[in-house]
Write a sequence for this structure.
């Protein structure tokens, strides 16, 4: 019995998971570059092109100050997903 179709099917999900992890890593790195504070991957959620950050009000305020630069950098670096907002 040939299991190649099953492997191809599972590879699609593996690639989706890797892309998702790469997006979280990219977002965390760009935010860290702009604000100088390390963001954990657990503090980031991405849904429908909107990045949600959980953290202190001071952290969120600092991110909002640098929001245009962060979004511009993300737009220049990602081709598979377009980020439209940070909340």
């Amino acid at each position: 019995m040939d299991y190649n179709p099953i492997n191809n099917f599972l590879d699609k999900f593996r690639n989706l998971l890797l892309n998702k992890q790469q997006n979280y890593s990219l977002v965390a790195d760009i935010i860290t570059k702009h604000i100088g504070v390390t963001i954990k991957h657990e503090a980031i959620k991405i849904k429908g092109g909107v990045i949600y950050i959980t953290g202190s009000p001071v952290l969120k305020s600092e991110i909002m100050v640098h929001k245009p630069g962060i979004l511009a950098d993300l737009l220049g670096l990602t081709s598979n997903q377009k980020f439209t907002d940070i909340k």
Q: What stands out?
A: The two ends are 50 Å apart (CA to CA).
